[in-house]
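Following the same procedure, backbone shapes were mapped to integers, as reproduced here:
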Amino acid sequence: MTRTKKTGLKTRGGRVAVIGALGLASVALAAGPAFAKGGVDITAPRTAQVGKTITVTAQGGDDSAGYLHQLCLEEKGFGEGWHQENCSAAVEGDARVTAHGTSARRGNLQFRAVLYGLTSPHDQNPVRLHASDVVTVHVR
């Protein structure tokens, strides 16, 4: 009889330890930070001729809840700072935008796309969520 009690106590102690460890692991995983997934891709030609049309396209999205998304293309070139070329409408899912333009002189033009989160279609304080890498177009 004594033998059965000792084995039973050891078994119960092992079960309690395993259950406690699993409980701690689940709390640690639930308390960890959650990261929203998203990103922006941009496409532009590597080279272009002076006076010819340059087409730049971008698409992007984010799975953050509660935001509308607006994607804007920005340009920098010829000694100027970054300025917006074109923006998409505010949408709930992935946003897409295309800009067509020409360059009147030779040099390098840089483009990037920036994804903003908005709380309404007319939000005056958008939140910058993601930006694409900078792409350079060599105008010859």
